[in-house]
Design the sequence.
């Protein structure tokens, strides 16, 4: 089985990039409002509540400024 040429891959990539906005606009139909957002265990979304849930004598460098 032969691999597609770079030109074919480039064409498909450009086609996807150009078609994506049309798909997004056509799918919406209006604005959506969410009452709640749930995030499960992503360290990038941690707002520091871990430090509130542990004992005060927990030695963690993030308790000190500027991080904590």
Sequence:
């Amino acid at each position: 089985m032969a691999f597609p040429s770079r030109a074919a891959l480039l064409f498909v990539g450009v086609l996807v990039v150009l078609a994506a906005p049309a798909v997004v606009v056509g799918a919406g139909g209006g604005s959506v409002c969410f009452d709640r957002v749930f995030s499960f265990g992503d360290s990038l979304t941690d707002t520091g509540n871990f430090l509130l849930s542990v004992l005060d004598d927990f030695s963690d460098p993030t308790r000190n400024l500027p991080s904590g």
User: Anything to note?
Assistant: Residues 6-63 form one domain. DSSP finds two helices and no strands in the chain.
